[in-house]
Structure formats: C-alpha cells, structure tokens
Here is the input.
Amino acid sequence: QKEVEQDPGPLSVPEGAIVSLNCTYSNSAFQYFMWYRQYSRKGPELLMYTYSSGNKEDGRFTAQVDKSSKYISLFIRDSQPSDSATYLCAMRTKNTGNQFYFGTGTSLTVIP
Amino acid sequence: DAGVIQSPRHEVTEMGQEVTLRCKPISGHNSLFWYRQTMMRGLELLIYFNNNVPIDDSGMPEDRFSAKMPNASFSTLKIQPSEPRDSAVYFCASRWTANQPQHFGDGTRLSIL
Here is the structure.
C-alpha cells in the first residue's frame, strides 16, 4: 500500500464550479500537510501548508485535514481556467523533516 | 526574489553519455533536495542535503547516480552512464528550515535515447 493515495483524475469542471481534491494516507504520524499546484512543464508551486487537523483558508482555496479519517482535501471556490493544472498533495511526519511523501497528482481542467 | 534555478531545462542525449544537471537553491535556504518525476511513480526523492552535507541518499537508484553540493549556492546531479530508463523530469527543491515546506525549480526534462 502506498503511503499517500491520490485519484489521478482527470477532473474536468465548468468555470465557477467548486472543486474538491482529495488524498488519503496510511501513516498516522503525518502531521504536516501541503498542497502544490503544478502547471505543465513547470515545477510544483506551494499552495497551502497546514499543521495537524483543521481548516485553512487562503482566498478561493481551503485546505482541510481530517486526521481521524487520514484524509485531506483541497477546495477551490469559483474555479477559473487559470486553475487548470495538476494538484499534488504532500505530507510528512514531525521527526522526519527530509522525507516528504507525495501523491501522484490530480489533473484538473476548468472549462471556460 | 529569485526562486530555485535549474539548468538545463531540457537535455536530450544518447545512452551511455554522462549527464550533469545543475541547481541553484534560494539564497539562505539550508536544505536542498533532488527529485525525479515520472507519470508512473510521481515524485521520488533521490537525495537530500542539509548545510551542503548529503544526509539521505537512499533514493538514489544506482551507483550511476551521484550528487554534490560544493557550496550553499550550487548543486549537481550526475548520471554516468545514462540509460533510457533514466528519462524523466528532475526537480531540485530547497527550504529554509526543517519546519518549512520546499520550493521547487522548474525542472530539467531529460530524454535518453
């Protein structure tokens, strides 16, 4: 079983829709959770960084962590064509700061 | 602020040739990571440096791969000899401290023919 599971999609939504992206994980020691956005032929760009459980909001983006279910989500409100990209979740434990575990990414297309 | 800078952006070479990928981390960042990304396996950590010292190279696939960080502003990843299965996008990332996330460069797209 992989440490981090992420549905690869592809996901296609109309402009203005609410998008929900999800990852599940198996290691209960994960405490730091990240979402990266990766445009085609570019490097991953950090979107959200959260510690432990709860919600974090930044503009149209909300990151949610449910440690009891080992489940994290990224919500995008009022999606725009510029949100079309691959979204990667990543996580690590408190003690192994060098080992980040990445999902394989979900490809999102927002149709104008 | 300048981000992580990688060169070259694209490299196409024949099997058996030596390949050298270069990375300049963000100034002031203490840790540097080399990753490989493929469709099948996603992002895989190859090696991690802290204060220019290699800490964890368990992800380096074979002895054909080597990495150096001679100073705080430069690192190289070398493949010698290269093989077609090494074809992938190689990313370099850096971070300031252990509790901070990584910042990635735009990668080197490597094709071994």
In short: The radius of gyration of chain A is 13 Å. Chain A has a mean pLDDT of 92. Chain A is about 0% helix and 55% strand.
